Write the structure tokens for this entry.
Amino acid sequence: MADSPNPTPGLRRRLASMTYEALLLLGVLSVTFLLPNMALGMAFAITLPGWLLVLHIALVLGVYFVWYWHHGGQTLAMQTWKLRISTPNGTPPSLKQLLVRYLLAWPSIIYLGAGLLWALFDRNRQFLHDRLAGTTIVFTEKPRK
């Protein structure tokens, strides 16, 4: 963006970061979702209903993303790819913006990636959930020429 202190990374870099994030989330969900549910099943023969399992995953991922975005503006994968969440004017997003971004990212990705494809037509190449939440993804440092 023209008024942002750091340039916007390309779509390929942001998608690569998302792919790496998906791999890291396998570990996060193994510890915070799989192990507790296996323990319940093995120790007490309890299987939680499907809606509760989906809610559990959404809450675990919500805490993971919002906490990392709020404390430093980047998740582990974003650190690797030198990306950070910001507002268009370069300030850190509010907690409300981060929650809105997280909630809007679900339909943005689930509906055949329509919110990601939005970046192909957006004037600033932003994902739909970023556009609606008032956030943007920028480089953590200016790229070398």
Q: What stands out?
A: Helices lie at 11-44, 50-70, 76-80, 95-110, 114-117, 128-133. The beta strands are 83-86, 136-139. The first helix runs from residue 11 to 44. The CA atoms of residues 120 and 126 lie 8 Å apart.
